[in-house]
Each structure stands twice: as structure tokens, then as C-alpha cells.
Fold these 3 entries.
Entry 1:
Amino acid sequence: KLQVSLQQVNAELENKHCELRTFQQAKESDEMALREQLTQKDEDVRMQREKVQELSQSYAALKQESENQKLNNSNVDSLLVQVKEKFQEMLAEKQQMMDAMAEEADSNLVATNHEIDSLKSQLQTARDQVSKLEYDMESQRTAEKNAFIEEKDREIQRLCEDLKDRMEEA
């Protein structure tokens, strides 16, 4: 009986031993599967870290580019303001030059008008002088003609008197 019991215990022990081996094989298989999963998870984590690193670098580059762009925009805005100010200065200078030229032209026009008026006056004076000279010359010619005529009249009268005297003598 003891032997049957011992055989049963041995059979149970063998069963348990078999179960233990099955359990151990299952455990090793599970551990292997878990190691593979862990290795896969490690690989996934490593890849995720690489992606995060890449994204972080991309973000930093984009951020730097954005800062550079802001700086460039600021520089462009500053340059635009400077160009606008310079343009305004040049425009003001040109306007001053145009105003000065217009004033000078107006002044020249006034002077020219005065000169024209003076020349017209001089021309009128010259015309008046010419008219007076013509009148004086005409008067002088008339006076000379009259004097000539009077002289000829006197000569004729003297000749007539001489003729009369000769005729009386004869």
C-alpha cells in the first residue's frame, strides 16, 4: 500500500514535474515573447525619441528662421522708413527748388515787364522825337521854301523895277 501510495505520489510528482516543465517552457516562451515585445518597445521608444529629436531640431530651426524672418522684416521695415524719409526729404528739396525757380521766374517776368514798359516808353519817346523832328524839318523846309519864294519874289520885284526903270529910261 505504501508502494502504491509511493507510486501515486511519484506519478503525481512526475505529473507535477511535467506540469512544471510545461509551465517553465510556457514561462520561457512568455519571457521570450516579452523580451521580443520589450525589444520592440525599446526600438519603438528609440524611434520615437529620434522623431522627437528630429521634430525638436525642426522646431528649433523653424523658430530660428522665424526669428530671422522677424529680424529681416524689422530690417526691411526700418529700411522702408529710411527710404520714405529720404524720399520725403528729396521731395521737399525739389519743392523748395521749384518754388525758388518759380519765384525767380516771377521776379524775372516782373523785371521783363518793367523792361518792356520802359522800352515801350522809350519807343514812344523816340516816335514823338521823330514826329517832332519831322515836323521841325517840315517847318524848316516850309520856312526855307517861303524864304526862297520871298527872296525870288524880291528878286522878281527888283527885276521888275529894273525893267520898269529901263523902260522908263528908254
Entry 2:
Amino acid sequence: MRALLICVGSRGDNEPFASLAATLIANGCEVDMFVQSDAIQLVPPPNGPLLRCHELPFTQMDFYRYVSNPSHGQDHSNPRVKFLGIITDCIGELVLPCTKAVLDVAKERKPDVILASSLSRQLAMAVGDEMGSTICWVQLQPLTPTKHYPHYSQHDSFIDALLAMDTNADSLESSFGEKNIETYCELERYQYEFLKE
């Protein structure tokens, strides 16, 4: 099997993807892994023909260019839409310009599956559409903060949410009910519209 991993984000995204790459390699899979330049040290050491690492030409610090002045959502009353404007700028200005480089590797290696982190999802979809490859989106946490997953900088809310979480499977399923699905659908629509512009 050949896998193409595209990971964009913080260490909390890159480390699990590096571990996934190591596991795939240990099971005989050929892996091409794209990571941003400040995460390259997390990638497993070269393993002959089984692992090829590709550097994306930006770092996590580059994301902060868009925090103070997002091009979309800045005047919206919903803070999640404002945050999504920042994320959309990061995707549109940093991630999507890498499409050709990723597609060139995909055309050469012909992956059976493409695995993408949250911030690389649109890039993976573009490459997967072109290649006819299966795409798996690995979302390790919600893209925007929620009541159940507040932003970690909101320390008290974050700790309170963790302590209040009921780990009963039925309770977890009901806590992500219809209202949350509506919210995520609305945020997906905004992101789509922002990227389209």
C-alpha cells in the first residue's frame, strides 16, 4: 500500500501523523509525508524506499500573520466565524499554493490513500480529486472552539470542560447532537464561501 500524508498544524497534529507514518512503515507501507518546515524533526528517520519526507515551505509561526487582520469574517458577530476567517487565510495563502508540489509527488507515487490533517483537508481534496484517490480526514480536535472543546488559552473554561466531561459513550454521543451538527454545517459553509472568494 502507498499512503500520502499531508499534515499542517501544530505539534499536536504533526506528532500523531509522524507516529502514524512510523506505524505504516513498520507494516510495509510506502509513505510520502508532507509537513511544514518546523515539524520536519518529528518525521521518523528515513527508512529506505518506504518513507519520503517533503517539506512544506512555511512554519506554524507563519499562521500568526493572519491573526490581527483576517480578510474574511473580521466584522462578524460570531467569534467562531472570525476565527474561521483566520484559518481560511492560512489555508488559502499558505496551504493551497502547495497543491502543485503535492500533486507532482502524488502523480509519481500513485497513493492508494491520502490522509490529511484539518488544515490540509482542502489540499488533500484537490489532489484526491485529480488522482481518484481515497481521502481520509484526520481531525484530532474541532477546528474552532466549542463549549465541549474550548480554546486551550481559556484555561479555566478548558479545565472545567475536561472535568465536567461525562465519558459514558451514550452521553458523549448525545452531547454532539443536532445543534452542534448545525453549527459545524454553518461554519463549513462560511469556510467554503471564504475560500471561494
Entry 3:
Amino acid sequence: RTAFVGGHQTEKQGCCGITCCPKSRGNTIVILRAGNEDIMLGPHYIMLMCTYVIVVGLSTVIYGVVLNQREEGERIAGLVLTILVILSLTVLALKDPGVAPISSEPVGEMSTFCEKCQSYRVRGTIHCNDCDVCVEDYDHHCPWSSKCIGKRNVAWFHLFLGLLFILMVYDGVQTVLVLVEEG
């Protein structure tokens, strides 16, 4: 039930709404497809693992050295913030960024043709050379999350960055407070 269009592997819908996943879509790995939603991992999964190591590693150090000396409520707040950062990164890393479907026919008046995908695409869709797919409302490619940031995951990208910023400020303030108290 797999077809190749323009060098890219596509799938036909199964009877149960879940299809046997293609091994890849461009340079991305499709882990699961349920209905119209793909759960996929980008090509820079090593950088994604580095992002997890940095977030978890620094949080562990801050939690073990700094927050251990703070009140229980402050420790819980730091732990909750860290968990929220990790969850938002995980959703961002697995969510389809808005990979454009393969189309052999123009899709509206303003459609353009992608030579690399050999497919028509709607206006605002740009080909990502890292992922080797066209992405709707393409913003940029983020190697730290291992994928493109586009129409379907840009809100998760902003949430991840916002939570990460709040966590960094929180950890910084807690570190300064501990240093002042010890000083």
C-alpha cells in the first residue's frame, strides 16, 4: 500500500485509521501515523539528545546543589518547571511541523512547484534542505529540536522557549539567593 511520488514515500489510509508507517518522509522518520497526524523525528536526533542532556543535566545540578538548600515549595516549583520544559520539547520534537502533502496537480491559484519534492505546494510552503520536505508556513530549521518549525509546531516551539527561559531565570535567581545566604 506504499507508493513513491517524486522520490518521496507516501501511504494510503488503512481501514482502521492507522496506517503502516513509511520508514521516512524526506529525511524525517515517521514513527506513527494516526489519521492525518504524523508523529515524526527529524534528521538531527543526536542534537535532540544533546538538548535533553543539557536540560536534564543542568537541572539535576541546580536541583542537587542549589535547590536542595531551599524550601520544599521552591524545590517543587523547580522540578515542575523542568518537567514542563522536557514535555514541551518532547511534543515539539515529535510533532509534524506541517509537512506539505505530495501533489501532482496545482493546489490553488497561488501554488508553486518544488523541484526537489517534484510536487506542487501552497503559497508560503518552503522546502527545508535539512529535512528534505516542504513545510507549510516554514519558519526555520532547528537542529536542537531535530526538525523544522512550521505551521503545526510553531506554538510548541514558542512554549518550549518560554518555559526554558522561565526555568533559566528561576534557577539563576535561586542560585543567587543561595550564594547571598552563604556569603
